[in-house]
Design a protein that fits this description.
With about 450 residues, the chain is α+β, with helices and mostly antiparallel strands. It is built from 14 helices and 21 strands. The strands form 5 sheets. Strands 16-12-14-13-19-20-18-21 form an 8-stranded antiparallel sheet, with helices on both faces. Strands 5-6-10-8-9 form a 5-stranded antiparallel sheet. A 4-stranded mixed sheet has the order 1-2-4-3, with no helix packed on it. Strand 1 and strand 2 form a beta hairpin. Flavin-adenine dinucleotide binds next to strand 3, helix 3 and strand 10.
Length: about 450
């Protein structure tokens, strides 16, 4: 039975699909978390940050979910930029406090509304993956509350297997209580951006290959409804941190002052007919035409978090929600793989807004970490029941054929056998999980679906 402090609540990830009733606990202290974990009548449980994973990673149907957002204190910052904080602290709070003081996160996902714990559990990556890899490279240590109630200090030297099973381990090894992350020094709160239009997939991939060395950050917004010679046409954004001398004169006095942004809001779920092939195609065409090749200096928020300017943008997909499908294709197969994925999507007649394409660098040592050298494409599909699930299955088959994989933080529908082939180190993960959590206290809807819980 759930304990009395829990409230029954319908929960989903950012994609609003799938949705399940869970027993949600808001626990602030470590002692409360420990007593929940070790109490004999407790069901399985999973930690939840800001719920920005898209599927059911932080959902635990008819079981317990432990909200971490009230554990959000800064603990210390060393002179060299080593941040110690509680794991419920968000990237938005870190940026708001530390960017004006000249410290930036070493890498960041496309939203700043994620917690440190959630970011480590997904081993998130950003627009600089091709140069510096994912967050795991910058996590020096964390403190983990385990299924036995013990708290372990994990790092590359101390409990290294558990350290690398937890980075990218989707919350299934325990609860990250605090973390130490190495930040970067920056001169300004701006980046120097070059916008370039690419006519098709070949041009887009060529542009990445030619510029990966010279630009810290890169991303392409692809129009995935185009076919024929224009298939894979995109707007590519390349950027480096701006120095003070890159800024216009009026900004040079206060280079670390962040530009204020007004956030718009989608007030309610839009009806599903609002998004169809015609409207999406019109939007994609407008986006492409609105961008010209140019250089500009762009604020940190505008460059890293364009979607954060619209609060609750996930409501545009309506009540049934949407699936974000993120595919990684190894470098040697990038062109063929992307081509095949785009063909399938275009033929499926399921509209996807601009998709995001990134080039990826070396993998880190996370046992279940997502990226390795190649290209990753993130697509949004409005959820239309079995049709959408079938499309994802077809896309999975392309990935299986070409040695690719999906990203667990985005996944909502993949099955265990597919995931096992995509992640050849899964047995290693399950071995650590058996040792640290023999009773499978930590579990989630996704964990059960993907076979991440040993039997
Ligand atoms: C608009 C948008 C853009 C995005 N762009 C990117 C991107 O560019 N790159 C990228 O990598 N990701 C991206 N993401 C995904 C996002 O970064 C990850 O899903 C991240 O994990 C979300 O953090 P959260 O705090 O919301 O975690 P949640 O969604 O709440 O949880 C995610 C996982 O972390 C675990 N977890 C949470 N807190 C803890 C804790 N304290 N201890 C142990 N486990 C914990 C949960 O159990 C769950 O398995 C994007 C998401 C959105 C909505």
């Amino acid at each position: 039975m759930p304990d009395k402090s829990a409230r029954r609540q319908s929960l989903s990830g950012w994609g609003n699909y799938p949705r399940h009733d869970c027993f949600v606990h808001e626990v602030a202290s470590q002692a409360e978390q420990r007593s929940l974990i070790t109490s004999t009548d407790s069901q399985t449980l999973i930690a939840r940050g800001l719920g920005r994973s898209y599927g059911d990673s932080a959902v635990n149907a008819l079981n317990d979910v432990l909200l971490q957002t009230s554990r959000s204190r800064f603990l210390s910052l060393s002179e060299t930029g080593l941040l110690r904080c509680e794991a419920g602290l968000s990237f938005a709070e870190i940026i708001e406090y530390l960017l004006p003081r000249g410290w930036a996160l070493p890498t960041t996902p496309g939203t700043k509304f994620v917690t440190v714990g959630g970011a480590i559990a997904s081993d998130v990556h950003g627009k600089n993956h091709h140069q510096c890899g994912s967050l795991g490279n910058f996590v020096q240590a964390f403190r983990l509350l385990t299924a036995s109630g013990d708290v372990l200090d994990c790092s590359r030297e101390s409990h290294p297997d558990l350290f690398w099973a937890t980075i990218g381990g989707m919350g299934l090894t325990g609860i990250i209580l605090t973390a130490q992350i190495q930040l970067n020094r920056v001169e300004t709160a701006w980046v120097k951006q070059e916008t370039r239009r690419a006519r098709n997939l070949t041009d887009t991939l060529d542009l990445f290959a030619k510029t990966d060395q010279d630009y810290q950050y890169s991303v392409a917004w692809i129009d995935c409804l185009k076919r024929g010679n224009s298939m894979g046409r995109s707007v590519v954004m390349l950027a480096n941190d701006a120095s003070v001398s890159d800024l216009p004169d009026r900004r040079q006095q206060k280079p670390l002052q962040m530009k204020k942004r007004r956030r718009k809001k989608v007030p309610f779920n839009l009806p599903s007919f609002t998004l169809n092939r015609l409207t999406v195609s019109a939007f994609n065409g407008f986006y492409f035409r609105a961008h010209r090749d140019k250089e500009s200096v762009v604020s940190y928020d505008e460059f890293f978090y364009p979607l954060d300017s619209i609060q609750s943008w996930n409501r545009i997909y309506g009540k049934r929600g949407f699936i974000q499908y993120q595919a990684l294709i190894p470098k040697q197969n990038s062109f063929d793989g992307m081509h095949e994925l785009l063909e399938l999507i275009s033929k499926s007649r399921q509209a996807s807004f601009l998709a995001v394409l990134k080039s990826c660098g070396p993998a880190d040592d996370g046992i279940l970490s997502y990226l390795f050298p190649g290209h990753t494409l993130a697509l949004d599909f409005p959820f239309k029941g079995p049709r959408t699930i079938e499309l994802c299955k077809q896309l999975d088959e392309v990935l299986l054929k070409l040695g690719g994989r999906i990203y667990a933080a985005k996944d909502a529908v993949t099955n265990a056998s597919t995931f096992h082939v995509m992640y050849p180190r899964l047995e290693e993960f399950l071995k650590v999980k058996r040792q640290i959590d023999p009773e499978n206290v930590f579990s989630s809807s996704q964990g059960r679906r993907l076979g991440l819980i040993p039997t």
